[in-house]
Amino acid sequence: MAEMLKISNLQLTFGKGSVNQNHVLKGVDLIVNEGDFITVIGGNGAGKSTLLNSIAGSLAVDEGAIEIGGIDVTSRSEHQRASLLGRVFQDPRLGTATRMTIEENMKVALKRGQKRGLKFGISRTDRILFAKHLEQLELGLEKRLKAEVGLLSGGQRQALTLLMATLVQPKILLLDEHTAALDPKTAEQVLKLTDKIVTEQNLTAFMITHNMQDALTYGNRLIMLDKGKIIVDLSKEEKERATVEDLMRLFKERSGSVLNDEALLT
């Protein structure tokens, strides 16, 4: 199986040299194969979002290396990595432009990683393509291509953002607690859609979640972070046998402390 991502000795400190210095990532090592769907859990301040932001290039690391598809991207900017990555954030408003229509947002997604000129026409072929992709959401959005995205509900908008992030297949899909701002029913729908898209496209994906049961239910691998280090890395077989209680026990064994983050335990 091809290696899609290699992280070596990743170190990152916020506020270095100040009284608020915070060593967030402490020598993270990780190898991810093509098609791995990794769920990521950990308490507040464990380094989950920082790890994803480092992969995306939103944060420059102090030490270590990041390779995507065999290419060293450590020194590349977020913009230079854009063609390799798809991202969905916790806030549904971050992945789309509110005052642009659904079809305009999807056209931008279709051009991800390409040079953008002054021409921004949406052809009939584009609309047929967009409608075909939107149909799989089963939300009726294929009939609302000219509707402004700001008129959509949070769940509709997040589903659209997920679709846009994978419209041009990325090397890696980064999902940063992308259902946390949704109500439970909508969150479940978006999670099932996520699983469907990742599986059908054989995407390599990271999904940060605040729910340990979801971390066990979805994906073929689970990693747990604590104080900037990966302390648990479960394979598909180990995940299938594990329970939430097992995860809590592993956390205590590897970290020496009790996991008491209420968000993870609900």
Radius of gyration: 19 Å
Number of strands: 10
* Cα-to-Cα separation, first versus last residue: 36 Å
Largest sheet: 6 strands, mixed
> Structural class, from secondary structure content?
alpha/beta
The largest sheet has its strands arranged as 6-7-8-3-9-10
Helix content: 25-40%
Write the layout of secondary structure elements.
Blueprint lengths: L2 E12 L7 E12 L3 E5 L6 H9 L6 E6 L2 E2 L5 H4 L3 E4 L13 H9 L13 H12 L18 H12 L6 E5 L7 H18 L3 E4 L3 H6 L3 E6 L2 E6 L1 H6 L2 H12 L6 H4 L1
Parallel strand pairs: 3-8, 3-9, 6-7, 7-8
Antiparallel strand pairs: 1-2, 1-4, 4-5, 9-10
Helix pairs in contact: 5-6
What does this structure look like?
- The chain is α/β, with parallel strands linked by helices and 266 residues long.
- The chain has ten helices and ten strands.
- It has helices spanning 48-56, 78-81, 102-110, 124-135, 154-165, 184-201, 212-217, 236-241, 244-255, 262-265; strands at residues 3-14, 22-33, 37-41, 63-68, 71-72, 85-88, 172-176, 205-208, 221-226, 229-234.
- The strands form two sheets. A six-stranded mixed sheet has the order 6-7-8-3-9-10, with helices on both faces.
- α5 (154-165) packs parallel to α6 (184-201).
